[in-house]
Specification:
The complex is a heterodimer of chains A (about 200) and B (about 190).
Chain A: E1 6-9, E2 15-20, H1 26-35, H2 51-59, E3 66-73, E4 76-85, E5 94-101, H3 110-124, E6 129-135, H4 139-147, E7 151-161, E8 167-176, H5 177-193
Parallel strand pairs in A: 5-6
Antiparallel strand pairs in A: 1-2, 2-3, 3-4, 4-5, 6-8, 7-8
Chain B: E1 3-11, H1 16-30, E2 34-41, E3 49-57, E4 71-74, H2 77-83, E5 92-96, E6 110-114, H3 116-123, H4 129-141, H5 146-156, H6 162-182
Parallel strand pairs in B: 1-4, 4-5, 5-6
Antiparallel strand pairs in B: 1-3, 2-3
């Protein structure tokens, strides 16, 4: 985590600090989650408004298992993206990425900045694929993931329900990280020996 | 007129040609200089020697072939053995110091070594070895500007791999700067 914190400029020119979550961030993280509209918390696996839950996450912070990257503006967390590694089993080559940004700061490229950091990190940790899940109606999120090299791998119709109990499709997008490095390897070989072919 | 002839050497698959291309691109596209690149290959497939010849000049280059390289960058012992005798007597010799042990260095030569493979492995991908070397080359030779070289790296590697490749460049560059700033320029033993 040597290269952090980083400062980025969002589309509206706001300077935001991007860095990994630390054990000092408990209160700020809880405040961030509690300020999110219920709709924006829907895809999260647990009730992030519970103080005990956030405290447990903070106390068990282990970047080898989950790498949380936060966006900070004037000491307040305004975005949180996490990369979840699987250390065992048939998914061990794969990580999952999740991202949520405070509503007031959405559509400014902040989610893209956060996820870009995590995608880059995944490539360096031997992860071959990164998975992201979102509702079919989250079109902006799908576009953001596409810009980061994710492609739609599956859509499960009527698979999830929103806050009002209405069914939606679940879109699974995947970034084949190993493919990037295969391209790099091919580039080196192509340049060095292509005349032989 | 300032013209510099550079030879890059290594075995196929190390990214020798890409390294030469990046330096050439840095010079010609981002540093407002002129550059040419030619390349040659061993007769076998991956693993055999290959080299790239780059000329950088502040004026248009009329003859694109390297005749007497003033800078030699090598990533394999075979390449070093083969190309070192071709260099000028006061050449700068840039080596991957864990793979290359130069023999028959002349007193006027300047030797710069970096454990680039180890740095690349520490970064998580051994194949960025050549980019570490490019960063190191940039620092110790000053032939192209740091920003120009960085931009050339960024635009030469597959989309999505830029971050790690730039980290590799920075790693090599910082190591090179620590060498050149820490002591007088190394002299061949």
């Amino acid at each position: 985590m040597e290269n952090y914190p980083k400062t980025v400029k969002t589309k509206d020119g706001t300077s935001v600090v991007i860095r990994p979550l630390t054990q000092d961030d408990g209160p700020a993280l809880l405040a961030f989650f509690r300020a999110l509209p219920a709709d924006d918390r829907l895809f999260l696996r647990e009730d992030v408004t519970k103080k005990e839950l956030v405290e447990r996450w903070i106390s068990q912070l282990d970047y080898e298992k989950v790498l949380p990257m936060v966006a900070e503006l004037r000491s307040a967390i305004i975005g949180d993206a996490t990369l979840h590694f699987n250390q065992h089993g048939w998914h061990r080559h794969m990580a999952e990425i999740r991202c949520v940004v405070a509503r007031a700061h959405q559509k400014m490229g902040l989610g893209t900045f956060l996820m870009h950091e995590l995608v880059s990190h995944a490539g360096q940790k031997g992860v071959d694929r990164i998975r992201a899940e979102m509702m079919d109606t989250q079109v902006s999120a799908q576009r953001a993931f596409q810009r980061l090299g994710f492609q739609k791998a599956a859509e499960l119709k009527n698979f999830v329900i929103d806050i009002n109990g209405k069914s939606h499709g679940l879109v699974i997008m995947v970034n084949d990280v190993s493919d990037l490095w295969k391209k790099m390897e091919d580039l080196l070989i192509d340049y060095d020996i292509r005349m032989e072919q | 007129m300032m013209t510099t002839e550079i030879k890059f050497g290594g075995f196929g698959g190390q990214g020798v040609i890409l390294a030469g291309m990046i330096i050439g691109r840095a010079a010609s596209i981002y540093d407002n200089k002129f550059a040419t690149l030619t390349q040659s290959f061993g007769p076998e497939a991956r693993g055999s020697a290959c080299s790239a010849q780059v000329i950088v000049s502040d004026q248009e280059i009329l003859y694109p072939y390297v005749t007497k390289p003033q800078i030699l960058l090598v990533m394999s012992q075979e390449a070093c053995n083969k190309f070192l005798p071709e260099t000028t007597d006061d050449a700068a010799v840039v080596i991957e110091e864990e793979l290359v042990k130069p023999k028959a260095l002349k007193p006027g030569m300047k030797l710069f070594g970096i454990p680039a493979t180890r740095f690349a492995e520490e970064l998580g991908r051994k194949m960025v070895l050549n980019i570490v070397m490019v960063g190191f080359f940039t620092a110790v030779t000053g032939l192209v500007g740091r920003n120009a070289a960085r931009e050339a790296v960024k635009t030469s590697v597959p989309k999505g791999t830029e971050n790690l490749n730039l980290q590799a460049f920075d790693r090599g560059y910082e190591y090179g700067m620590s060498l050149v700033q820490g002591a007088a320029a190394p002299v061949a033993q």
